[in-house]
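User: Working on a comparison across species. This one is L-histidine N(Alpha)-methyltransferase from Sphingomonas insulae. Can you predict its structure so I can line it up against the others?
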Amino acid sequence: MLKPEIEDGEQTLADPQFRADVLAGLERRPRAIPARWFYDRRGSELFEDITNLREYYPTRTETAILERICPEVAEIAGRGRAVVEFGSGSSTKTPLLLRCTAPSAYVPIDISGDFLRESSRVLSQAFPDLLVLPFEADFMRPLALPHTVADVPKLGFFPGSTIGNMIPLMAVDLLRTMRASLGEGAMLLVGMDRIKDEATLVAAYDDEDGVTAAFNLNLLERINRELGGTIPVDAFRHEARWNDDRARIEMHLVAIRAVDFVVDARPFDLAAGESIHTENSHKYGSRDARILLRSGGWTPIHEWTDPDGLFALYLAEA
Ligand code: AVI
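Assistant: Here's the predicted structure for L-histidine N(Alpha)-methyltransferase from Sphingomonas insulae:
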């Protein structure tokens, strides 16, 4: 998740996909920009801050569950699997899993090569005897994993409820792709945030200190900096909404007043109250999660949660 793409204030050539997604997203109705573009350097730092917020329970809750259940995961999965992490494993969760599962190799997959190399270097220092095989790739596509682990059964690891940032159709596609990439006999350990009372959910995405607001608004700063935008950032406010119909938190940037601006020399205007939809974070009840896993070609074999039932980890087999 945390990808050092550009330094603050540094002028770089914009990613053509960023340009295309922003322009298309501002043109469509309702307006929407994919959440993946939150994570420039500043956005990654702000996300790191979010994970430590009092209101943002997912990170600490999932870490505590993992700490507790890890020996059990190791017993069910058996030792010596290759752990394949979808994302670079920058968190404290990866060392936890590596320590108790004693894998034959660790394969972190990430689209950002720089970040992947850096986090792999740090992990190799902490686990000098572990074979670390960083794999630079887009894990949304089927992958041929390194030869070295070709004949070793895999344990996929997808923590953080990142699966919740995809609409269910995409999540199912990703689960199927993971199954194909991980091969015969694979297992998958995946974290999903649970449906709970609306106040807790909204507070987690609209904290008192305004860190999540800054994270959301940073997208506009990034557009201004990288795409020659003139968006008046102070004319927007952050909003987190619970969409009960779709069981998801939505983040929006709402225009406080009528605004017009250019991005990449193209004019745009928003009426007061109009929003740009910037993120979905889907929440899954126990049955929903199991249906999702089965739709993605996985058989759920174990489910663990915290005492308050806020978050859940699922172990599934191919
Ligand atoms: C990365 N992802 C799982 C976070 C979430 O909870 O959906 C992103 C996030 N957005 C706002 N706060 C956290």
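For your comparison, note: The radius of gyration is 20 Å.

User: Helpful, thanks.
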